[in-house]
Amino acid sequence: MTRKTRAIAGAGALTVAGALILSGCGGSGFDDSSGDTQGGLTSSDDALDILIGSSGEAETKAVEDAVAAWSADSGVEAKVSVANDLAQQLSQGFAAGSPPDLFYLSTDAIAGYAGNGSLVAYGDELANKDDFYPSLVENFTVDGDFYCAPKDFSTLALIINTDLWEAAGLTEADVPTTWDELAAVSKTLTTDGRVGLAFGAEYQRVGTFMAQAGGGMVVDGQAAANSPENVEALEYVKSHLEDGTFAYAADVGAGWGGEAFGKQLAAMVIEGNWIGGAMSADYPDVNYLVAELPAGPAGQGTLQFTNCWGMAADSPNQQAALDLVEYLTSTEQQLAFSEAFGPMPSITSAADAWTQANPDLAAFLTGADYAQFPPNQEGASDVVSDFNAQLESLKTGDPQQILDSVQANLEAVVG
Amino acid sequence: MTLQVRTPRRGASSGIRRGEGVAGWIFTAPVILILGVFLFIPVLMALWVSFSDWSGRGSPLSPSVGFVGLDNYAAVTTGGGLAERNFGIALRNNAWYVLLVVPLQTALALFLAVLVSRAILRGRGFFRTAFYFPSVTSSVAITVLWLFLFSTTGVINEVLSWVGIAGPNWFNEPEGIIHAALASVGITSGPEALTSSGFLGISWWEWLAGPSFAMSAFILMAIFTTSGTMMLLFIAALQNVGAELGEAAMMDGANGWQRFWRITLPQLRPTLFTVLTLGLIGCWQVFDQIYTGTQGGPGKTTLTPAFLSYQSAFNGQEWGQGSAIAFILFVIIIVFTIFQRWVLRERPVSKRRARQYQVKGQQP
């Protein structure tokens, strides 16, 4: 053996040994967890690990308190951790075979994790299954399986700066209910250095116009990105980006719609429930009202955004996790969360109490009746981000051409 | 088997050197072990993942994971779908980044090094520290600083407005600077020859778009932050360049410019190679600025292969494709390094050049 071949052989032996060690580390999990299985869910005495992607201290504290209360009640230990990069930490957990038991799960991630078997579809086991809004249930249904309980949701609405509104001589009767009215008030509100309506350069805002025109990304399970309705919607947006009455938030120098609105660079924005927290924290002096988005040629339309309580297939104590989810999505608890950090309850039984507590925000909840959601198929988030990249140059682009390319990409993932 | 000749075994030493080999292995064992566990094995596992259909759950070495050959590589290079297009865009962006950052930072570093090496400069220590300072600052901190400086109403645009230039909306402007320049003289769409065909899912016209304004800001940042480090390497090399050759050249009547190009620079060749290699590797691996700054936006114009690799693995659950991108990137870096080594190789003096040095009348 020459020195070289010996070195190679040594390195090879090292590799094999190391690989065995590593695979040994990764192999533990579902197969050798010591739990009993009841009704398809595992059960054991193990403590629960809960991973959340928190919007801030208020949310962290609310979730921690709720989990602690449940823990004291049920006798099962539970620990809440806050992720700083949820997608990465979840992926690491799944790869290592030791994921958190419960975690926030977004609609764009669900199909990927469901596809590789990381999630357990526990939706049908929920006692309060029928209480959730049907569109939210649909949002978390992959290949016919209802995977996880929607934890709360938000919709988009039209946020109007009331001071600028009155200064422009507009009254409450002028709140736009059609595209033409929206264009008219935007024109009235546009002044030097301020646009009438601003929104982010992304499908997650522009998509509301597509919904109002009767279009959508996926209709009846088919990719429909380049439908005439969608083209009409983008033509409408493009024409007003061109005449300067609408603008993307970035083009007026703001990071997002809320910032454009708070800095009064725009008199109206299309934003969701989360704008309330930003306004009271950063721009308390700006007065505003929340109205439903105007109807397009095909009626009203908006988009909804939601997260669910994902449950790991590798969790040894799914029974307890299910119990915790039922607790966290109960009417009382959802109203408490809503009060603490703003989102809307995902269950119909809390709707009346929520509307009573937040009469000014009622438009958000009304939107649930006609809200669409971004496509949740595996790979769809890449399609949407490619769409967003193209939307940034909508002003100079061709709507038909943009939507044709989105359609080609979408067909590849919707199948 | 009678003709066996006993030859002394190579490496088996005798006498005073006996046992040194064992001691050597023992001394290097910790490093070999650490490198093996934290570098060599992960790299091999990633290589395996790039050839497998591992979906991100459980160990990639478990029996349920299948070998799919070059499928992942094919998906990002010839698939015709979004994966290929994204990879094309990422390569385009990074190629422009490399093309602009590497020469500019090397030139700037050399310029600064020559400047602070001059004996007559007062306060050399101060300047050296000042130029080096950006290199020791965390890239995340500098990225955040850059986001402020280049915001629409930021300092850069303010300064530009003093000289009558309406600054672009830097980090939100997806248009390439070459396209923007062409648009300013009225050319907004490319010739048929460039738009009809392309490579990796994007047309030649898009390849030639140039870095977007957002990417240009990152390019300036890279030049600003890394020139200091490279300058240090050049300073060290300049100190090893003896003054004699320069003096001799001066006697022969070479001016300062000639002395730099003909005497100093050739002696810096090994350092130049180091600086260019480090620059190339660093530029092809650009990740943290993108991750903290723009996440690939606006319009995917700051997407780089390194970030795309991360994104397709962790967000898209396409682990195989993510690893495949990483290994393609690895090959690109190796090829560039070899190419540049070849360009900067020591050449024998050409006959034409040799003739110039010969004293007249002595020609054979």
Compact description:
The complex is a heterodimer of chains A (415) and B (364). By secondary structure, chain A is an alpha/beta fold.
Word description of this protein:
- The complex is a heterodimer of chains A (415) and B (364).
- Helix content of chain A is 45%, strand content 18%.
- Chain A contains 17 helices and 16 strands.
- In chain A, helix 2 packs antiparallel against helix 13, helix 8 packs across helix 9 and helix 16 packs antiparallel against helix 17.
- The longest helix of chain A has 25 residues.
- The N terminus of chain A is likely disordered.
- With 364 residues, chain B is mainly alpha-helical.
- Chain B has a two-stranded antiparallel ribbon.
- The longest helix of chain B has 36 residues.
- Chain B is globular and about 70 Å long.
- Chain B starts with 19 loop residues before the first helix and ends in a 7-residue tail after the last helix.
- The model of chain B has no long low-confidence stretch (mean pLDDT 85).
- Chains A and B meet through helix 1, helix 3, helix 4 and helix 16 of A and helix 1, helix 3 and helix 15 of B.
- Chain B: This is Sugar ABC transporter permease.
- Chain B: InterPro entries: ABC_transporter_permease (IPR051393), MetI-like (IPR000515), MetI-like_sf (IPR035906).
- Chain B: It is found in: Cell membrane.
- Chain B: It comes from Microbacterium lacus.
User: Order of helices and strands of chain B, N to C?
Assistant: HHHHHHHHEEHHHHHHHHH
What is the beta-strand fraction of chain A? 15-25%
Tell me the strand order in the biggest sheet of chain B.
Answer: 1-2
Helix content of chain B: 55-70%
Distance between the termini of chain B: 60 Å
The assigned structural class of chain B equals mainly alpha
Low-confidence stretches of chain B: none
Poorly predicted ranges of chain A: 1-38
Most extensive chain interface and residues per partner: A-B, 45 and 41 residues
